[in-house]
Structure formats: C-alpha cells, structure tokens
TrEMBL record:
Keywords carried by this UniProt record: Nucleotidyltransferase, RNA-directed DNA polymerase, Transferase
Protein's recorded name: RNA-directed DNA polymerase from mobile element jockey
The keyword Nucleotidyltransferase is annotated on this UniProt entry: yes
A Pfam short name: RVT_1
Annotated InterPro entries: DNA/RNA_pol_sf, Endo/exonu/phosph_ase_sf, RT_dom
Single GO term (MF): RNA-directed DNA polymerase activity
Length: 1079
C-alpha cells in the first residue's frame, strides 16, 4: 500500500500511496518538505529545483501529487496559477486532444471540483524570494496551494507561524482536490512546535470507479499500414470483379449524355462504387478490427516487453520454481542460464526499442507535433482521452438546434447569371494537374467521412484513379449534382477543457466529411483563391487564410499605427470585436448574394450552392451515433471552402463603412498621400473573424460602432458584446475615459488586449506580452519534462524537441516584439538546457552553451525579424504599404520608430548596411539574407563566448577542456548515468574545494585539497596530482598512465578532446568514486 521512493534531495521525503488507498486509477505521491530559511548557512538556491526534479522523476503521470511542509516561503495572496490566454493558445493551433493543450488548461479542473481560483491569506509578512520561487514552482507544475482554498481554512487563510506569516503549505495537483477533505490549520501548540501550527488534512476514498476501458472498433475501415501500400495498390489493379473497369465504363457512358439527363442517383452510384472498391481492398490487405473489445488498463506495461521477453520470462520462472523445489547443481546451472538469457533478451529489446523510438521522434518532432505527442503517450503509458462525458441525446439536440435556421427568407430564389468576368478560368474544365496538386497536399492520419475513404487511399492510388477523378469531378461541375455522401458530416464533439463537461456548449464540433469530396472542394478553392489574388477580390484589410498573409502582418499593422500616432502625440481608439460562433451562424442566403455580387457565378456558384443545399450531419460519440439532422445555417468547420466564403461574407464591410460616412484614419491617409503617393482609407483590419475597428476620436469610434452594429443586423451576424473590448492606445493612462456602447451594452475599456495571440498594452510596450508568453511557455516546458522523465532520449533529440515544440510557443510573434529586451525569453531556454544536462541553476551560461553547442534565442529572433522585413519589402499587401510609409518617415527624420531602428542595427551589426540603404533594389532572396545574417551573428557570439570563458574565474579549467564551440560527443555516446557524471565534472558542479570555497567566499589560494592539503583542490589536481592513497589507486585503475606521468594542461586537453568511449567510461567511474570520497 505504501512505498518510500529513494530521494537524493535533503529537502524532501517521498511516500508513494497505492491507487487502492483512495480507489484512484493511478498511484499518488506525497512529499514532506522542509526548506531552511533564507540567508542562513543551511539555505540553498537549488532547494526548489531539487524538489521539482524529483517530483517530475517520481510522479508517474504528474497529475496526482501532494506536497506538505515548511517552505519558509511568504506569498501573501499572489496568484499561484497562470490564467490560460484563450487567444494566445488558439494562435498555437493546438489540438484539444494534445496533452500540452490539457496541461495549459489544467486550472479549469479547479472549477469542476468547486475549488475557488483565488485563495485567501492572512499573511502580513512581505513576499520573500522563496515566496516567488514557490509561486513559480506551482505555476510551472500545475500545483495549487490548498491554504485558504478548501476545508475549514477556505476563504480564511490562517497564519501558520508566530501569528504573522504563512510559511507552511499544502500543495495539491488539480486532481488531488477530489480526494482531499477536512483541511485545517490547528491552533498553535507549544508542545508540538516552537512557532509552527499543525496542518491537518484527510484523504477520502471515492466510490468504485470502472478501471476498464471499453474500446469500440467498428468494422468500418482498418488502420492504414504504409508498409503494405504497394500491396494495396496492387489489389486495386488486380481487382478480380472488375470494379475499376465498370466505374470507368459507367463514367464514359454518363459523359456522353446530355448534362441535364444525368441524375443524382447515377453520380451517387459512381462515388459509392469507388468507396466500396477502396474499403474492400483495405479489408483484404490490412485485415479488419474487432467490433468490440474490453481490456483492462495497465499502466505498468512496458512497450518494449514483447513476446520474446514473455517467453523467456516463462522459462526463467520455470527454472526458478524447479530450483526452489529441488536444489541441486543441475537446476542451479539451468536457473543461471535462464536468468542470463532473460536478462540479455530484456536488454536487447529495450535497446532496440530506444533506438527505434529516438529515430521515430526525430522524424516527427519538427513535422508533426500531434504524432509526436501520440508516440510519447504510447511509450509512457498515458491513457488517451475518452469520449465526451455527456449523453448522445443531449449532443444531438444541441447541435440540431445550433444548425437550425431561424430566418424566414431561406427559400429565396436566387438568379445565377453566367456572365462572370472570371468565367474562362473559374468555370472551365478541371484538369488532372489541379487534382494532382490537391491530392499531393492531403495530410495523412486524418479521419474519414461517412464514405470511409482515407486520404492515404487517395494518395497511394493517385496514378490509377487520376483519370477517373477528372471525369467524375467534371461531371459534377457541369451538372451541379453533388453526391449525397459528400453532403453528410459526422460531428465529433471535443471537450474544450473549459467549463462543465456535461454542458454541450463546452464542446467544439469537429465535422468529418468525405475525403474525396474535400479533394474536389480543394480544386474549387484553389481556383477561387487564384482569381482573388489576381483581381484583388478580397479587401487588403483582410489577411485571414490568404496566401502570403499571416497573423504577423495584422499585428505589424496594428503596432505600426500605434507607433505613428504616438510619434504625432495622438491617441488611437480601437475596438476588438468578438463574434458569437461566426462560422456557425453565417446566413447562407446573404452569402449567395455576396458571392454573386463578387462575380462568382455560373458553375462554381452552382457547386457551392448545392454543397450547402440539404446538408445533413449526425453526432458520433464513441460507439454511439445519432440520427441525421438538417444543417440549415453556417459554414462547415474544417471544409476547404469555408475560409474563403467567410472572407467574402465580410468583404464589403469596409465599403459599407465608407458609404455610411464613417471617418477613416485621416492622419494615416494624409501621410500616405504626402509621403508615398498612396490613398489608404483605413477603418478596419480583419483576420478571419478577429476584427479591429479604428478611430482617431471617441465620437468617430462610436459612429463606427453604430454602423457596424447596423451592418451585423442586416447580415445576421451576432456580436458577443460581453467579450468585445476597447483599448485606448496612448503614451499615458487616460485621466477620463469616454463611454462606448454596442448593441445597447456599454463596452469595457481595458489597458490591453490579446490580439491574434499577442498582448497589446495601451502604451505599446511588449513587456507584459513577453511575460504572458513566458508563463505559457514555462508550462509547455514542464509538460515536456513530464513526458520525457521516463524515456532515456539522447540530448540532441531533447534539444530538437525544444526547438520543435517549445520554441514556437516561446518565439510566437517575436517578429513584432523582438526589438525589446529578450532576457526573460532566454531564461526559459537556459532553464531547459540546464535541466537536460542535470546541472545546477547557478552553472555558468557559457558552459551550458558550450557543452550543447547552443546559440542564444536572440539570434533566432533577429533572423525572424529580418525574414519578416524581407517579406514586407517584397510584397504589396497592407502591411507592406504601412512599412513603406514608416520607412519614408523614419529615413527623412520626420519620425523615429524603434522597430525600424532595430532592423537597421541588425544590418549594421552584421556589416550589411548596404542592404538597408538599397532595400528597394535588394537582390537577396529570403533564405539568402537569413543565412547570411545568422552566420555572422553566430560568429560574433562564438567570439564573445570565448571571451567570457577567459574572463571568468569559473572558466579556467573549462578553457582547457573546451577548445571548440560544438556539441560534446559524450552527451550522445555515453549512457545516461555516465553522461550526467561527466557533465557535472566539466560544468563546475562537483563538490571540489575550489567550488566549495567559492560558495563560502574563501580566497582561491586557501581552497586546498582536503585529502593531501598540498595544492588547490581543482579538477586538474584530482585528475593528475593528488597524493592521497585513495585517489592514486583510482587514478592508476581508471586513467591511462600517459596522462598522469609528467602531467600538463596540454595532456589534460588531449584527454578530454580526443573522444574515446572506453576512456570516457573509465573516466566517469573515476569521477563518480572521487565524489564519494570527497563527500
């Protein structure tokens, strides 16, 4: 029931409780802590780091942990959690099923367990350094302070020390709140403690929970197996029933008919035949799954423990049983032999598994984060999220009502004149090149629609089916007869990790549609986007889902406008609009009108209209599937055409505001005319449904809001007034703020707003933005720690994981804020590097960079800024126009802009001034300029790195060991234990007198060896000189004689720089035993 894991830390003792104690699905871990007070000789800056490291190593899944004790940390009522930023997390495009997504939204569990987010505290003492460290510890690890939150101490927060401060805490992971009751801080008792109060809490046992997981595998389609791809294609070609030929013959017959004579049933027959051919071949080649199976969840299963291991274990157990029954030499020999074979088999399979895992993760870390997390979940035994915890009937009724139109004019007959100016291209015959382009860009591992066709089926048989696809697609284009299966969607509800899981409104609807149908709509979408780009069909104020446009463009436009107004001493009034279910509530009749107004008519219009005519959906939750219901409103989430259609739906908003005499940003318009000869009427910028309204005056903004409300009423768009906010950008806080209303609701004026994932403060400082990014990134880092704790991955792969999963979070939108101080960003990078090296937080940064061959993230930030700058000067979008204006004003001295000055400084720093001064004729490509800048910045960093080593007292030995800036081979070649030992020695983390003396402030010449008392006790001394008998014996056993015979710094350099696995392994043994002698 109870076990006591071994601990290496002096500050915590651990107790592991079996899951049966509280009837949980997992064991839980209890830590008992004492951290000595700050500024005492027993204090250590590494105390919290040690506890954190051990907690990560010991907690099986990191979600059921309790830590209690005296932390000597004073926190008052400061937050111990990071409020998840919806806009920022949404900008990362994380899947709701990703464990990282759940980790970032962990705080939502407190709401489920009725635990208040904010705690009470009667602590009167000032927050100390340990207090800040404790709060950071909680934020990073999703731990929460129970004091002042639960039990008899709820909303009280009694003091625990001398009736003045709270320094004793109970910390709980979110899931532990379910099991914790009766938390109480007892009255001070001098018989028990000198100044501390007792913390008392109880653990309750939950009612029986099912520890079985029912998995449903319907015989619909089997998992794709890439190793059998050729067999699958061959089976299609060798189809004995001749289905492929019949499909082709039927298509030829239909193509010879008049288009008006082709019926929808005939189209359905063709598409269904293709589906049946794919399904039949997949079943024959890949096999089929059982429709139903029930298995017991076992978290202790090892993924590398295969049948060979099992058989050898059986033989070992037989030999052991026989030996215990008859103890004789023969049975003993057989037992030893079986034991060796079993152990050898285990080691072999574990080694093979680790190599395969490392290789697989290397291939997926950068390309596919979703697959990466799936692999980690599989190998560490994590249980995949179950189905939606809600009745299928409730989901059915909810989504049925959501898709029901409330408008009376949906039967309005539309005319479709076939006289579009785009007719030649838009409505022409579909070519095989168009289809091939769409097929190549299909993503693997995507779920199928109701026709059960996977993307892998389509891609693998592309050459076979391409002529058939061309015929069927053109037939559909000419007849506007959409197959029925393409108009049916399967809604998979995904919990948003927010709110009550019993409330269907807290589920995101992921609609699965036919993969073959999506290839067709991809071709149509590509045509629409092409004519949109060529003829400027979409307003320049819209950047969402457009080729060559990104969220960074809109963020740059907003930042630039604020900067210009600040330079003029003016304010900028902005409203950040929030639509309520924008995609889901698009009025389709209004959409048809706007498509025709945009000259999208003829065949393409008919196709779009028919795709949404009489569409149906059903809800699927696990093995349950609802009846079909009509979808009468909105756009299909995840469908290829939806982003373009939504852009068209809002495309006339800017024109509408002009017609209603809403004032544009007249200052910007005048500056553009005077400086770059461009007329720029700017009222609004949009990225999908993220909308920002601008004005120079309060009255102007209110007028814009009034007209915007009228526009939304006309086109049946619903505004979420509660989430629509206003920010008045100004150099100083406004003494008196005006009032603004929208839809009869007074809008809240904030000091900042997160737009497209980046927090814009009213003063246009990005300090708070960087802080928010760091908080989210820190949680991402610790989510990765928890996944990697039981997987012995090579250091280079761990770094690749950081670059692939953490860096995108950490450097999100750095093209905009990167000109400001980035020290807090680099702090996270170094924290991760020190963690994987297993070194102290106080380890010199130059050693960390040197051992890993890592460069500061500042170099990557500068390169991102330069790449974005290159995009600005080589395109004609709105952000480029604004940049051109800023550049002109900056260069003629009218205004000064920090962002431009920073870009100019990067070129100056790298000796590329001419690129800045002749940017209008820049001949460098984006990749060339990035490569050139990065190379020069790296060279400069390496020079600075060498200087830091030579100028640091802690770099004297390291300057001998390290002669070249590169990742050390021992980090990859040695096993985990030896790697840690060697790194500890090289990074000044050993308990040598030279280091101990530095901590205690002893002069260098007095830090003599504690064994021989002859010389300074540094690394060189113990390796080659120390006369202690114990050390000499170790030296002769583990170090080649050449090196300690007439030792020199040159020989020491050779020992560490000529990498040899055998020599390094022995050297690690020497270092390990030396440390035991010294401690």
């Amino acid at each position: 029931m109870l076990t006591f894991p071994k601990t290496l830390s002096e500050y915590v003792l651990w107790v592991n409780f079996s899951k049966h104690v509280v009837n949980s699905d997992l064991d839980f871990l209890l830590g008992c802590v004492y951290i000595p007070p700050e500024n005492t000789k027993y204090a250590s800056p590494e105390a919290f780091n040690e506890i954190e490291r051990e907690m990560i190593e010991l907690s099986h899944h990191g979600n059921k942990v309790a830590i209690v004790g005296d932390f000597n940390a004073k926190t008052q009522v400061r937050d111990d959690f990071v409020e998840p930023d919806d806009n920022f997390i949404r900008s990362l495009n994380l899947d709701e099923n990703d464990e990282l997504y759940s980790y970032l939204y962990d705080i939502e569990k407190l709401k489920l367990y009725n635990v208040p987010l904010r705690r009470a505290s009667q602590c009167k003492a000032k927050v100390n350094n340990y207090g800040n460290k404790l709060l950071d510890f909680c934020k990073q690890n999703n731990m929460y302070i129970a004091n002042g939150r639960i039990g008899n101490d709820a909303q009280i927060g009694k003091t625990t020390c001398s009736d003045v401060s709270v320094i004793d805490y109970l910390l709980l992971s979110s899931d532990m709140f379910r099991y914790t009751t009766d938390f109480e801080i007892k009255v001070f008792d001098p018989l028990i403690s000198d100044v501390h109060c007792r913390l008392v809490f109880s653990l309750c046992k939950l009612t029986d929970e099912c520890i079985y997981n029912t998995e449903c595998h319907e015989n619909r389609y089997t998992k794709w197996k890439s190793c059998k791809e050729q067999d699958f294609v061959k089976h299609i070609l060798d189809d004995e029933r001749g289905n492929l030929h019949r499909i082709n013959d039927k298509l030829n017959e239909l193509l010879n008919k008049q288009h008006d004579n082709v019926t929808n049933n005939e189209i359905n027959d063709i598409v269904n035949s293709i589906s049946e051919l794919f399904k039949g071949s997949a079943k024959q080649v890949f096999g089929s799954n059982n429709a139903y199976r029930k298995r017991r969840l076992r978290c202790d299963n090892k993924p590398w423990f295969n049948r060979e291991c099992h058989l050898n274990r059986v033989e070992f157990n037989k030999a052991k049983a026989l030996f215990h029954k008859v103890n004789n030499p023969i049975n003993k020999t057989n037992l030893n032999r079986a034991s060796k074979v079993y152990r050898k088999t285990l080691n072999k399979n574990y080694r093979n598994y680790q190599e395969k895992l490392s290789s697989e993760l290397r291939n997926t870390a950068r390309m596919d984060s979703k697959k990466f997390w799936n692999i980690l979940n599989k190998c560490d035994g994590s249980v995949k999220k179950g189905n939606a915890d809600i009745c299928i009937t409730e989901l059915y009724e909810y989504f049925k009502d959501l898709n029901k139109s409330v408008y009376d004019d949906d039967d309005f007959e539309l005319e479709n004149p076939d006289n579009s100016i785009f007719d030649d291209y838009l409505n022409g015959e579909i070519t095989t090149d168009e289809i091939k382009f769409s097929l190549i860009n299909l993503k693997n591992s995507k779920a199928s629609g109701i026709d059960q066709i996977l993307n892998e089926y389509l891609k693998s048989t592309m050459d076979v089916f391409l002529p058939i696809y061309q015929k069927i697609f053109n037939l559909i284009l000419n007849t506007a007869s959409i197959p029925d299966v393409w108009k049916i969607g399967i809604i998979k509800p995904v919990y948003k990790n927010k709110g009550d899981p019993k409330d269907p409104d807290n589920y995101r609807a992921i609609t699965l549609v036919s993969c073959l149908g999506k290839v067709f709509t991809s071709v149509i979408n590509n045509r629409l986007n092409k004519i949109s780009d060529e003829f400027d069909l979409i307003s320049s104020a819209q950047a969402g889902f457009r080729k060559g446009h990104s969220t960074t463009d809109n963020m740059f436009v907003l930042y630039s406008l604020i900067s210009i107004y600040f330079s003029l001493g003016k304010k900028l009034y902005c409203t950040f609009i929030d639509f309520s279910k924008a995609f889901d509530s698009v009025w389709r009749v209004g959409l048809w009108k706007k498509l025709q107004k945009s000259n999208i008519t003829g065949k393409i219009f008919n196709i779009i209209y028919k795709l949404y005519d009489k569409t149906k959906s059903c809800v699927k939750n696990g093995c349950e599937q609802s009846d079909l219901f009509n979808c009468e409103i909105g756009l299909k989430q995840g469908e290829n055409l939806s982003p373009f259609l939504f852009a068209i739906y809002l495309n006339d908003l800017e024109t509408y505001l002009v017609e209603k005499n809403v004032n544009c940003l007249q200052t910007i318009d005048k500056l553009c005319i005077d400086n770059i000869g461009v007329y720029l009427k700017l009222f609004i910028i949009l990225y999908a449904d993220d909308t920002v309204l601008f004005s120079e005056t309060p009255d102007g903004l209110q007028l814009a809001l009034n007209e915007f409300e009228q526009y939304c009423n006309t086109w049946k768009l619903t505004i979420n007034s509660g989430k629509t906010k206003i920010v008045i950008f100004s150099k100083r806080k406004c003494a008196r703020t005006p009032h603004f209303t929208l839809c009869n609701v007074e809008l809240e004026i904030l000091e900042g707003y997160t737009y497209l994932g980046l927090f814009f403060n009213f003063s246009c400082s990005f300090f708070k933005a960087r802080k928010k990014i760091v908080e989210q990134a820190q949680k991402s880092v610790f989510a990765v720690y928890k996944k990697l704790r039981n997987i012995s991955l090579p250091v280079d792969l761990q770094l690749k994981i950081f670059d692939s999963l953490i860096m995108p979070v950490l450097l999100y939108s750095s093209e905009i804020w990167g000109f400001e101080n980035t020290n807090i960003i680099e702090k996270i990078h170094l924290q991760f590097c020190k963690y994987i090296l297993n070194v102290r937080k106080s380890t010199p940064n130059f050693i960390v960079y040197g051992e890993l061959g890592r460069y500061p993230l500042d170099i990557e930030i500068k390169c991102r800024i330069i790449v974005f700058w290159h995009k600005l000067i080589t395109s004609s979008k709105l952000s480029s126009t604004i940049y051109k204006l800023m550049y002109t004003l900056h260069e003629n001295g009218t205004m000064l802009f920090k962002w431009l000055a920073y870009v100019k400084d990067i070129f100056s720093q790298t000796g590329l001034n001419y690129v800045w001064y002749y940017q209008s004729t820049c001949s460098f490509s984006k990749d060339e300029i990035k490569r050139l800048v990065k190379s020069r910045l790296k060279d400069q960093f390496i020079q600075k790195w060498f200087d830091n080593i030579l100028n640091s007292s802690r770099g004297q030995t390291y300057s001998i060991l390290k002669t070249k800036f590169e990742q050390e081979k021992y980090l990859i070649k040695l096993n985990t234990n030896d790697r840690k030992i060697m790194c500890k020695f090289r990074s000044c983390n050993m308990h040598l007198p030279i280091e101990k003396g530095r901590w205690l402030g002893i002069p260098r010449q007095e830090r003599t060896c504690t064994l021989c008392n002859l010389y300074i006790g540094d690394e060189f001394h113990y390796l080659f000189i120390c006369e202690s008998v114990l050390v000499k014996c170790l030296r002769e056993k583990y170090i080649p004689k050449y090196y300690f015979t007439y030792p020199s710094q040159l020989k020491m350099q050779g020992l560490f720089n000529i990498f040899n696995v055998k020599i390094y392994t022995k050297l690690c043994k020497f270092i390990e035993k030396l440390e035991k002698i010294l401690t």
